[in-house]
Design a protein that fits this description.
By secondary structure, the chain is mainly alpha-helical. It is 71% helix and 0% strand. Among the domains are: 167 residues, no CATH class; 141 residues, no CATH class. The protein is globular.
């Protein structure tokens, strides 16, 4: 039941009807209904995984209470409980995501969807409770609704408990401005997914699926389109998840901030999959940075490398994910090593903010990112070697099959995306979906929705990040 399917919207209408009518004055009732419908949604996707979700939710709920009580009595026991939670959460991740690869012949009993996303929620919760950043949640319904929140459980964003759970403690009445904003984001997410990601995916699939038949020209074009596809697919889901949450009265964490306008790899990671990047930064990078501070700049480089490699293997136990992390770590270290000289050079020549300085840096960063995503999609070292080998054979006629499927509408959609991103990045005062004039907002959304119906691939294909 993907968010871009009619089944989801039938389900969502059924969720909203009692949520904003008979339950509108009762936050407890809303939360119970939210928990039940979230479990239904998750069970519909993979019912065999539902008992695991319920079990770890109960265990971490009890751990949170235990940690808070022991913090007042015995900090050593509180720390032990926190570490037990970390071991359990990481152990669950290891078993279901990495066991089959790291231990040949071993196979997990289940293929658990969304495990990376809800496990990170649970790990963050026990750490925050131990550090006193939040109180332990005493209402298990609220805690369960946070962990299983159906718009985000399959592919994020990864909400922090201290931000999300307080929203469960108050009634959510129909806020028409919030509902309108939610629908705007849903429509934009549908545009990204259906008009861009699903429309252009045929070409990268064709090229990388049979790379031995293609030359450097086709591989470069496929790499560019794959980078755009990945962004449109994942950002499209995030927009829809944030929008659905907004319609229900929740503010979900932002996940993307125009990453292709980044001027270096470090900035790119501050703009891409921000809920994961900030989670890793807070719970992994910062503690490592403190632990390695005696090593000077080499400690910083080591902490940076571990941080981004962990982001890579978070996706799964596959060579491509590990190499993806290593690839980005090299450029992050390079950016850190050159940062002081770069800032001095910018100041001396008054380059900061100049378009002729920013544009080449953005192009170079995009090339690095696109190459990294090619590595990301390879399943083995032999796949990557085959791509590099084919690129070494030189340029040639461009492969045209699949380009016809992209066509004029696909190209126009990509141009529309980059126009909007450029408008937002530069702060141009051109307003359509967010105009202060109600009629212009409604007209813009209606036109965009009509365009999605007309130009989008309406088959309801799954999102790339569902596998993680």
């Amino acid at each position: 039941m993907v968010v871009n399917s009619y089944q989801f919207w039938i389900f969502f209408a059924a969720v909203l009807l009692p949520y904003y009518t008979v339950l509108r004055r009762n936050s407890k009732g809303q939360n119970i209904w939210l928990l039940v419908t979230s479990y239904f949604f998750y069970g519909y996707a993979n019912w065999k995984s539902l008992p695991l979700l319920i079990a770890v939710t109960i265990i971490f709920y009890l751990l949170g209470i235990g940690i808070e009580k022991q913090n007042e009595r015995n900090t050593g026991k509180a720390r032990l409980l926190m570490i037990s939670g970390l071991v359990l959460g990481i152990g669950v991740l290891f078993y279901f995501k990495y066991l089959g690869v790291l231990i040949p012949g071993a196979t997990p009993l289940l293929n658990v969807i969304g495990i990376s996303f809800f496990t990170f929620k649970l790990l963050g919760y026990v750490v925050d409770t131990y550090l006193g950043k939040m109180s332990a949640v005493r209402n298990i319904i609220d805690f369960g609704a946070y962990v299983a929140f159906f718009p985000t459980i399959l592919s994020g964003p990864i909400d922090r408990p201290g931000e999300f759970i307080p929203q469960l403690e108050r009634n959510r009445n129909a806020d028409w401005d919030g509902i309108a904003e939610g629908f705007r984001r849903v429509v934009w997410g549908l545009f990204l997914k259906l008009c861009i990601a699903d429309r252009i995916k045929a070409y990268p699939d064709a090229v990388f699926g049979n790379v031995g038949y293609h030359n450097t020209t086709s591989i470069i074009l496929a790499a560019i389109l794959y980078a755009i596809e990945m962004y449109a697919d994942f950002a499209g889901y995030s927009e829809m998840a944030i929008g659905v949450g907004r319609i229900m009265g929740f503010k979900v964490r932002e996940n993307f901030l125009r990453p292709f306008f980044a001027q270096n790899v470090s900035e790119y990671w501050r703009r891409w999959h921000m809920s994961l990047t900030s989670w890793i930064t807070d719970y992994v990078y910062m503690p490592l940075n403190v632990a390695f501070r005696g090593w000077g700049k080499w400690g910083l480089y080591l902490a940076t490398s571990i941080n981004v490699i962990l982001i890579g293997i978070w996706h799964g136990a596959q060579w491509g994910y590990l190499l993806f992390g290593i690839w980005h770590s090299l450029f992050l270290i390079l950016a850190a090593a050159l940062e002081k000289n770069r800032k001095t050079f910018e100041k001396k020549h008054k380059l900061k903010g100049k378009w002729y300085y920013k544009t080449p840096r953005r192009v170079v960063t995009f090339i690095i990112v696109a190459c990294g995503l090619v590595i990301f999609r390879t399943e083995s070292l032999s796949d990557l070697t085959a791509i590099v080998s084919q690129c070494g054979k030189g340029f040639g006629p461009i492969f045209t099959n699949g380009l016809l499927e992209i066509g004029t509408l696909g190209l126009f959609s990509i141009l529309l995306l980059f126009f909007k991103e450029m408008k937002d990045e530069n702060g141009w005062s051109i307003h359509f979906l967010h105009s202060q004039k109600t009629w212009l907002r409604l007209a813009s959304m209606a036109i965009l929705f009509a365009y999605v119906i007309f130009a989008g691939e309406l088959k309801g294909s799954s999102f790339i990040y569902f596998q993680f």
